[in-house]
Hints:
The protein is α+β, with helices and mostly antiparallel strands and 658 residues long. The protein has 19 helices and 28 strands.
Amino acid sequence: xxxxxxxETTKKLPFHFRQKTDAMRVPLRTMFRFTWLTxxxxxxxxxxxxxxLLANPPWQHLAESIVPLQSCLSGDRPxxxxxxxxxxxxxGKRQPVSVxxxxxxxxxxxxxxxHPDYAASLCRRADQTVFSLPLHQVEFVGQGTPADxxxxxxxxxxxxxxxxxxxxxxxxxxxxxxxQLVALLVSQIPKLTYDxxxxxWNYRSDVSLKVHxxxxxxxxxxxxxxxxxxxxxxxxxxxVTVSLSVPEGxxxxxxxxxxKQIPLDRVELEQQISRGVRRALAVLAPSAMLMxxxxxxxxxxxxxxxxxxxxxxxxxxxxxxxxxxxxxxLLRKESIRCMDSxxxxxxxxxxxxxxxxxxxxxxxxxxxxxxxxxxxHLQEMAALGTExxxxxxxxxxxxVFPELFxxxxxxxxxxxTKEGVLYHGRVLxxxxxxxxxxxxxxxxxxxxxxxxxxxxxxxxxxxSVSGMNNQGISLGEMGGRGEGKWDGVPMATLMRRALxxxxxxxxxxxxxxxxxxxxxxxxxxxxxxxxxxxxxxxAATPEQVEIVQPGQAHPLLGPGIQDAVVLSAGARLETxxxxxxxxxxxINAEDALWLMSRPVAMKTNxxxxxxxxxxxxxYVANADxxxxxxxxxxxxxxxxxxxxxxxxxxxxxxxxxx
Length: 658
């Protein structure tokens, strides 16, 4: 079959089948290769030889050198010291990173990682687990019985840290297989060669590997064991040396008497680190199924999951409890991934950075913010947590996450656009490195007795950072400063309240003025319906609200542009302003999407949305693990059509009339 016929045949396949095939391609290829090489290895053993490949001294030496490292990773070796010294180019300069793992016995191990700006140690003993931060001189001490799952016991630790979301899950069986089979697998890597003069392996022209092995009987009696096994890898912008030896001395105490010690529940400590590392491995090495999930539609009471051109679309209606329950039923995995990304992955990184246990900071923020959250939102979060099997307070606290940390937006209309149509663009540059894109979902929600709306968000998150309602109101926000000012309504709660409660732009501005506010945020709000096209920029702090009208000059934003509100910062603001001025008078939907392209959108661009409120249309692009949202396809959603469908299927849904 020629390539043209193959292409035409693929095009004829149903979309969902092509997606399933793409997702399975890597695992199946790996499985077939593994099976084929296993057959070769068995044939070599049964023929009482090492096979033509492994009879070659370099390959035989490579296979032999794999044995010690493999025995450590598989858990077969109860005692070892493994150290990694590296020099890696970060932000344009070489920076040292060191890692050391010492397994003292079947129960005790120490893990240390250090960088000039960050350092952390994890010491686990039979009766306690200690997470230490040397630069802060603080250690979190977990005592008590560990959990049956999500623990840090050395027995089967890698199986706790690797799951099907990471492609490492497909390669893990190879690490436990015969070393000669591993060498056979390595031999299949294209452009991998052995340089006999340098006694090193070369991959293409930019990566090299040298293996140094010193037999134990050749070591001097008083020599340190650090040189028993060493691997040296080099690339264009990095160098790594891995050394394997025998640990010296007795098992040390994990505690530093002069450091501040903070007691924690051992289950909580081990769960955050184990789930955080597992989520990190999925983000760093995502599996094919994670990047190309099966696009299977589902329906539950009060909810429906659809797939529209590869994006998740979830329709929800009813009471807060019904909406929260249906949300969890339709997006169980996505919600858990999102919460793991925030609580456990980001939480561990933030703990190392700040020296404070992240969950405690989150709880403190929630305690101050909770009185300002509507009871209906708390009920929805509670139903979500109950259905997921997560503690309700944990889910509620996680939903105030945007308050702890602090994008670009614009609205153009009238003389700036073709036929005067109002286009409202929203660029969210936010933490793609923790994998929130894996939970990206566009929600269409019709709550009982409130306005229905579209919310561009994430599984497990009930607030809003980008949305449009059935009254022609569209909202987008940009974070500012002021972390810790939490005695007010959470930003994402205010955004959702505006979608549910407001009919006009004046209603939105009034909501912000009369509500106690938290940290510094900037907003673009718009309203478009027959006879009305309006937009404003808003700068809000706990102390004041400042309004920027279209065409108004501002010290932070530059000279005004007629019939335009443009918010961003630095070079991105200059680029966005130049683009609006270049297209002024002719901007259409395609141009408006272009306004949000790189470099207005950053590398961390999580999602982009273009609202056309008077048409009830929104265009959504989400990041993946390879590209920011601005470089991904946009999908068009017809809000009013979807709400009519939802109202027809659920009499409890809100009216779609304007």
